[in-house]
Amino acid sequence: MIGLATAGAVDEEAVAFAASSLASALGVATALLGPLPEPAYAYDGSRGQYSSTLILLDAVARRPAEATKLLVVTEHDLFIPMLSFVFGQAQVDGPVAVMSLARLRQEFYGVRGDRALLLQRVRKEALHEIAHTYGLTHCSDPSCTLSLSTDIRQLDRKGGDFCAGCAILVHDAVAAVHDSLRGSYRRGGAR
Ligand SMILES: [Zn+2]
Ligand SMILES: [Zn+2]
Fold first, then answer.
1. Which ligand is in closest contact with the Cα of 131?
2. Which of 36, 77, 80, 90 would disulfide-bridge 132, Cβ 3.0–4.6 Å?
3. Mean of the pLDDT values across residues 103-123?
4. What ligand is nearest to the CA atom of residue 129?
5. Which of 89-103, 111-125, 175-189 has the lowest mean pLDDT?
6. How many Å lie between the centroid of ligand 1 and the Cα of residue 20?
7. Cα 77 to ligand 1 centre (Å)
8. Residue 179 pLDDT grade (very low, low, confident, very high; cuts 50, 70, 90)
9. DSSP 8-state class, residue 83
10. Is the CB of residue 71 less than 8 Å from the CB of residue 22?
11. Average pLDDT, the chain
């Protein structure tokens, strides 16, 4: 199961849309978990942003065992030290990813809000970060949702699905992760 959890107050419809996007794109059950604490510990006053790495580390410690993967969703603007911001961050081939809605909103750029556009961006970012947790790295196809986006224009130019090559890789990885879990449950039950 892929769990989704909020860190701080978050647009619930956007989180639910991320969950349904992941479930349909990957064929894995998703579940909305209880909220994580407001991530005040991750706030950097000099930048006015939140450390995505600290939020990831907190999520690693709090991830429930039944959530094979955990996607944390926050409204806070995220950064890593070498970049001015990140849309999200993931542990490659690890259990946890985080994404922010802050820069997915048109309002961030001084433009009137656009609900449909927000949800398209949520889907792209959720699929992108979770694919990293299944071990996939960035794709060179600019239309693939696993291509790197360093600004909102690049995010909007790419599609909301994996390219054919990434689709095969991610489905193989998903099957391997979730089948090996089923196998270990079987072995455990036989003892
Ligand atoms: Zn990425
Ligand atoms: Zn691709």
1. 1
2. 90
3. 98
4. 1
5. 175-189
6. 20
7. 16
8. confident
9. S
10. yes
11. 94
Whether residue 156 contacts residue 116, with contact meaning beta carbons closer than 8 Å, is answered with no
> Residue 125 catalytic?
no
Residue, of 185 and 66, whose pLDDT is higher:
66
Assigned token pair, 9: 């107050």
The mean pLDDT value for 25-54 works out to 96
Interval between CA 167 and ligand 2 midpoint (Å): 7
Q: CA 43, CA 89: separation in Å to the nearest integer?
A: 16
Amino acid in the structure at residue 79: F
Whether 190 shows a pLDDT value over 60: the answer reads no
How many structural domains is the chain composed of?
1
Residue 47: what pLDDT?
Answer: 97
Question: Is residue 129 one of the residues assigned to a domain?
Answer: yes
User: How many angstroms does the Cα of residue 40 sit away from the middle of ligand 1?
Assistant: 25
User: pLDDT above 90 covers what percent of the chain?
Assistant: 93
Considering every ligand atom shown, identify the ligand nearest to the alpha carbon of residue 145 and give its number.
Answer: 2
Any domain includes 75: yes
CA dihedral 103, 134, 160, 13 (to 10 degrees): -60
The pair of structure tokens assigned to 115 is 């609900």
Catalytic residue among 13, 75, 125, 129: 129
For residue 33, the enclosing domain spans: 2-186
CA 100 to ligand 1 center in whole angstroms: 13
| Residue 72 placed within a domain | yes
